[in-house]
Amino acid sequence: MTRRRAFTLIEVLVVVAIIGLLVAIAAPSISEARRISKRTFCAHSLHQIGVGLESYLSSRGKDVFPYLCRMPSYAEATTPSGSQRLLSLPEGLAPELGAKSKVFECPADIVTESPMASMDGPTPPVPFGPRVGGRWFDSEGTSYEWTEQANGLHRRTKKVTWRDIPIPLKDLPIVFDFEPFHGTPRQRGRSNTLYADLRVVTD
């Protein structure tokens, strides 16, 4: 009867080292795949929001963009009828997309900056902004910001001014990530944007 040869300690250590090396090599690829997957899911959600906006414009809005607040914390704003509470993006599109639609939740949503760091222009502090490490969705009910400059614009408007630069209406970003959730500042594809012509672009 022959005895089976056991692995030596050196052989076991070599195998463990090889497995560790393979994991170290594969980890960045797995991380990048997850980042791209979340970014793609987010872009699909923005596309669905665009479908909801198209439905709104074609029926309720009569080709005029809705009056919405940039985020629920800024519900009070001035409208043509005076100062009143504006609906948030999820509230405004609830008839088209559902009151509790998951399309407003980005899977990569996480607060990495102070609540006002990603906002432009003179804006008061967020009354109940999310804490760093939390999620915008948990605080605001959406991971996406609405551009109030689109409020009341007719979809056939030719030109608008964005950050002091005249641009065609189709190039106006109207819904976008609160923060660049999908990468570092120098990384391509770090945020998704829905434009006024309802196309989604990964910036």
How would you sum up this structure in a few lines?
The protein has 203 residues and is an alpha+beta fold. It has one domain. Helix content is 31%, strand content 15%.
Describe this structure in words.
By secondary structure, the protein is an alpha+beta fold. The protein has four helices and eight strands. The protein has a four-stranded antiparallel β-sheet, covered by helices on one side. It starts with 8 loop residues before the first helix and ends with a strand. 28% of the residues are buried.
Which word captures the global form?
elongated
Radius of gyration: 23 Å
Percent of residues in beta strands: 15-25%
**Mean pLDDT metric:** 83
Largest sheet: 4 strands, antiparallel
Measure the end-to-end span.
Answer: 69 Å
SSE sequence, one letter per element: HEEHHHEEEEEE
Q: Can you tell me the residue ranges where pLDDT is under 50 for at least 5 consecutive residues?
A: 116-125
Tell me the helix content. Answer: 25-40%
Number of helices: 4
Could you say which structural class the secondary elements and strand pairing correspond to?
alpha+beta
Number of strands: 8
Side-by-side strand order of the widest sheet: 3-6-7-8
- Provide the domain count: 1
Key terms for this structure?
alpha+beta; single chain; 203 residues
Topology:
Elements: H1 9-58, E1 76-79, E2 82-85, H2 89-92, H3 94-97, H4 136-140, E3 144-146, E4 159-162, E5 165-168, E6 173-177, E7 192-195, E8 200-202
Antiparallel strand pairs: 1-2, 3-6, 4-5, 6-7, 7-8
